[in-house]
Amino acid sequence: MLHVLNHPLITHKLTQMRKTETKTKDFRQNLDEIAGLMAYEICRDLPVRKVTIQTPICECVTEELSREIVLIPILRAGLGLVNGIADLIPTAKVGFIGLYRDEQTLQPHEYFAKFPSTMPQAVNMVLDPMLATGGSAVAAIDMIKKRGAKTIKLVCLVGAPEGVSAVEAAHPDVDIYLAALDDHLNEQGYIVPGLGDAGDRIFGTR
Ligand code: PRP
Ligand code: URA
């Protein structure tokens, strides 16, 4: 299912990121802040369990999170979403998927993978700011399903309809969260209007 997190603060910060003149420092800071705001919404349905605790006043029955959270950024650009979410979920474990998209074929290529062993029981959040053709997201989800991941959320900033359709077709069980659903992809596979190359803008390359 697709969830587009329409919120004035998220949209305002994303607008700053889209501007050509926004430089690395502000680009990263806005991404960090959006990640935190998105995490709040994405965690709305996290499973909880009842616990009995002792407050300074009395014993009471309350709730706490019942499942571990694993954050799985797709390198490089997905790294930009980790800190903002981990600030809200400091117990989250982090796995890594290294994928780059061939600029000619637009096909994803794997170059790194390292995951916590708890992925099969955890709520797994695959992180990548950009969902363009969807090739990288589909490949990343294939990889973690092969390692036993069952509950999976895909968290992106900007998505193209083509990418959303590709993920929905390949992985209909995965919830997709976007800050914005953009218009289309151009001939080079960039999201329009988009924000350009997310990895280059986060890390100041190019
Ligand atoms: C970008 C982006 C996604 C991918 C999206 O990464 O961060 O991972 O492209 O495109 P797709 O939906 O068509 O697969 P890129 O390959 O440029 O690598 P980078 O993060 O190292 O810059
Ligand atoms: N990757 C990006 O970084 N930006 C796009 O618009 C598409 C893929």
Which short descriptors sum up this protein?
206 residues; alpha/beta; eight-stranded mixed sheet; 6 helices; binds 1-O-pyrophosphono-5-O-phosphono-alpha-D-ribofuranose; binds uracil
What does this structure look like?
The protein contains six helices and 15 strands. It has helices at residues 8-18, 24-42, 82-88, 135-146, 161-170, 198-203; strands at 2-4, 48-54, 59-65, 69-75, 93-94, 96-101, 108-114, 123-127, 130-131, 151-155, 158-159, 175-178, 180-181, 184-185, 191-192. Strands 1, 4, 5, 6, 7, 8, 10 and 12 form an eight-stranded mixed β-sheet that branches. Helix 3 links the parallel strand 4 and strand 5 (93-94). Helix 1 (8-18) packs antiparallel against helix 2 and helix 2 packs across helix 3 (82-88). The N and C termini lie far apart (35 Å). Bound molecules: 1-O-pyrophosphono-5-O-phosphono-alpha-D-ribofuranose and uracil (URA). The site of uracil has 10 residues, from helix 6.
Summary, kept brief:
With 206 residues, the protein is an alpha/beta fold. 32% of the residues lie in helices and 31% in strands. A hairpin with a 5-residue loop joins β14 (184-185) and β15.
